[in-house]
Design brief:
By secondary structure, the chain is mainly alpha-helical. The chain has one domain (8-137). It is built from 4 helices and no strands. The termini are far apart.
């Protein structure tokens, strides 16, 4: 299979949008972590679940950092493959483009894992609210 210099350029919009989405996730988690820290500092005796939430957030932030790193690596490889093709190093360019695709795939896998963890965290928060509301109704 032979590709030309425009093929890696097709990934530019996708990678850029993914990086923007990952950055938005990071900002949302950073705000959540700051709010959690404020709640932790203001309570005389913080609930035991706050420490679990902090641990969860730290892991999710690690995942997002790695998602961003893989996405940036993918973007870098796309550009590098285009440069190699421009310099008539077709085979090297194709291998670098393949690496770009694998980096992008890794980034998407981490994104899926982070989304699953995020969903579990939200479900725990909602179940806690359900328990409190059922106790209040009795």
């Amino acid at each position: 299979m032979s590709i030309d210099i425009s093929t890696p350029a097709l990934l530019f919009p996708a990678i850029t949008l993914l990086l923007l989405a990952f950055t938005n996730r990071f900002v949302a988690l950073a705000n959540l972590a700051r709010g959690l820290r404020q709640r932790y500092d203001n309570l005389p005796e913080p609930p035991s679940n706050i420490l679990g939430q902090i641990k969860n957030l730290k892991f999710r932030l690690l995942l997002i950092r790695n998602m961003q790193a893989l996405g940036i690596g993918s973007f870098f490889c796309c550009v590098l493959s285009m440069v190699m093709m421009y310099l008539d190093k077709q085979l090297i360019g194709e291998y670098i483009f393949a690496m770009s695709l694998f980096l992008l795939l890794g980034s998407l896998v981490l994104s899926f894992i982070e989304t699953q963890i995020s969903t579990k965290a939200l479900n725990l928060e909602l179940s806690d609210l359900e328990q409190k509301s059922s106790i209040a109704q009795k």
